[in-house]
Design brief:
The chain is of the alpha+beta class. The chain is 18% helix and 40% strand. Strands 1, 2, 3, 4, 5, 6, 7 and 8 form an eight-stranded mixed beta sheet that branches. The model has no long low-confidence stretch (mean pLDDT 83).
Length: 141
């Protein structure tokens, strides 16, 4: 039996491939944490390429975004290709049969707010630094 089940976060916006006027498939990568730790605090991750077709492609196209937690299930296919410089690259791709979300809408909104707050610089009012009023010993009085 060939069935891979995993969950993780979408690493980039899903890539939509078109054939004619309809979407043929949607490709994305998820980052999955492993169960064991390497050192204190370090946890290894794997990046799993996923491909959706049909109804799952429509679902992925409409709702998947970078950072969204998802759960996927489907057969794992291996393949390879040769780069322009002659190097052979081996691939592993999950062809998604079941796609579900790993967080509720409320959890996703809370996560997005927390990420936005972590990136935003602290507000200090006017944006200028306060300079104390000290006239002692200034060389240019």
């Amino acid at each position: 039996m060939n069935k891979w089940i995993g969950s993780g976060k979408v690493t980039e916006e899903p890539l939509i491939r078109y054939s004619g006027d309809k979407a043929s498939f949607v490709a994305f990568t998820i980052m999955c944490k492993r169960n064991r730790r390497i050192k204190e605090g370090d946890q290894p991750v794997d990046f799993i390429d996923c491909v959706c077709v049909g109804q799952n492609a429509k679902l992925a196209q409409d709702f998947l975004r970078k950072g969204k937690k998802v759960e996927v299930c489907g057969p794992l296919q291996s393949g390879h290709y040769t780069t322009k410089d002659g190097r052979k690259v081996y691939t592993k791709t999950v062809f998604v049969e079941d796609l579900s979300f790993g967080e509720s809408k409320a959890e996703e909104e809370a996560r997005l707010l927390a990420e936005k707050a972590a990136r935003a610089p602290p507000e200090s009012g006017s944006g200028f630094m306060d300079i104390p009023d000290i006239d002692d010993g200034l060389p240019f009085q």
